[in-house]
Amino acid sequence: MAGSLTLRVITPARIAFDQTVESVRVPGADGDLGILPRHANMVAALDTGLMRYRVGGKEQVLYVSGGFCEVRDSTVRVVTEAGERPDEIDEERARSAERRARERLSQGRVQEGEPLDILRAEASLRRALMRLRAREFRSE
Amino acid sequence: MASIRELRSRIKSVGSIRQITRAMEMVATTKLRRFQERAVASRPYSQEVTGMVTRLAGMLGEDVGDRPLFQKGAGSRTLILLVTSDRGLCGAYNSNVFRVLETWLKEHPGREVDYYVYGRKGYQYLTRRGREVERFLVEPPLEQTDYRAAARAARLCSEAFLTGKYSDVVVLYTAFESVVRYVPKVVPFLPIEAGTMQGEGGGKTGGDLILEPDASTIFDRLVPRYLETRIYNALLESLTSEYASRRVSMKNATDAAKTMQNALKRVYNRKRQENITKELLDIVGGSEALR
């Protein structure tokens, strides 16, 4: 194998992940970006979504809530507000967040609420849905 | 002169005060450690964000200064984000903050100021002096503050700044330097000084760097994160200082109670002995008289 790749996920609360991996796929703002060892230096803005990485030939999933990805010296640094493994995700919290966001959205549509509030509700809905999707990868 | 009974009850009450302050000292110690750990845990994140912002600012060069968050606001007022504690019994922690506030106000005479306040003590301080608190940040309570709460406060400040009402935004918080040293500080928050950013490691990366989607988009997304980490750090440092200060003052209270208890015990024992001697003399005197 040509070189190795270190993946480090950094959040305000902790370093959520720090391990050597074979490849990474991050949810870039304009679509997924694949990163292999010896990737050129890069800084990318991320979208809320699922990040995939490969260890020992097996693909694993990590939830990230937006943030940034920096590739430098064959290290992928993902700087995000939340980075969670499927088994760390609080399903109940995500479901109630989903419900709240949907409620706010249905109300907002009716009274033409502030566009900012709608944007926020949409972002929060997206986070909840992505968390739930990541959650599905848990059992493997 | 206190009677024996009064002395006994005072010794008891001083003893129970001592137990309480000791318990509070221990609580403060654990909380101090917890906030310190959180502050340490957040460091890599803020370092990464700051590093990226600086590097991108270096790449963007002159363009950076044109962004609204980097330019002096149109207004004349100053917005102060004041970080104090919700609860007392923490020594001079809050009064030190207020002293710095007063000095700052004196150094900037004639400046019109609005306050965003964290902590009930700060709110009380300002309202008692008839100054208006524009916004009192209570939700969530300071102690349960997390990154998202700090992010919200940062957003409030940036939004207020962007309305054009203010010329700048400053944060007054207590910087934690060590367990025995915490200094209240006024730090400029907005506008961001592009100069300070480019100073460190500006064009270091330069060269071949892929940017997805492009430098200015990333930069515009990164700047709010940068501001959030600054508020988050300020809150964590203030909380750590608060508990460090509380621990010291509770330790002093416990020690003072101990000294007081000892002094009272000495008086009490002397009195007790005096009484016994007096009673003995009475008995001896009585039996002498009967003879």
Describe the overall structure.
The complex is a heterodimer of chains A (140) and B (291). Chain A is α+β, with helices and mostly antiparallel strands. Chain A folds into two domains: 80 residues, F0F1 ATP synthase delta/epsilon subunit, N-terminal (ATP Synthase, domain 1), CATH 2.60.15; 47 residues. Chain A contains two helices and ten strands; from the N terminus they run E-E-E-E-E-E-E-E-E-E-H-H. In chain A, helix 1 packs antiparallel against helix 2. Chain B folds into two domains: 54 residues, Orthogonal Bundle (Helix Hairpins), CATH 1.10.287; 218 residues, 3-Layer(aba) Sandwich (Pyruvate Kinase, Chain: A, domain 1), CATH 3.40.1380. Chain B has a five-stranded mixed beta sheet, with helices on both faces. In chain B, strand 2, helix 3 and strand 3 form a beta-alpha-beta unit. In chain B, helix 1 runs antiparallel to helix 6 and helix 4 crosses helix 6. At the A-B interface, strand 5 and strand 8 of A face helix 1, helix 4, strand 6 and helix 6 of B.
The rough form of chain A would be described as: elongated
Number of strands of chain A: 10
Find the CATH topology of the largest domain in chain B: Pyruvate Kinase, Chain: A, domain 1
Quaternary organization: heterodimer
The count of helical stretches of chain B stands at 6
Query: How many angstroms does the end-to-end distance of chain A come to?
Result: 26 Å
What is the molecular shape of chain B? elongated
> How many separate structural domains of chain A?
2
Spatial separation of the terminal alpha carbons of chain B: 36 Å
What fraction of the residues of chain A are assigned to beta strands by DSSP?
35-45%
Low-confidence blocks of residues of chain A:
none
Instruction: Specify the number of helices of chain A.
Output: 2
Give the biggest sheet of chain A.
5 strands, mixed
CATH architecture of the largest domain in chain B: 3-Layer(aba) Sandwich
The top-level CATH class of the largest domain in chain A is Mainly Beta
- Percent helix of chain B: 55-70%
Within CATH, the superfamily of the largest domain in chain A carries the name F0F1 ATP synthase delta/epsilon subunit, N-terminal
Domain module count of chain B? 2
The H-level CATH homologous superfamily of the largest domain in chain B, spelled out, is ATP synthase, F1 complex, gamma subunit
Spatial sequence of strands, sheet with the most strands of chain B? 3-2-1-4-5
Report the average pLDDT across residues of chain A. Answer: 85
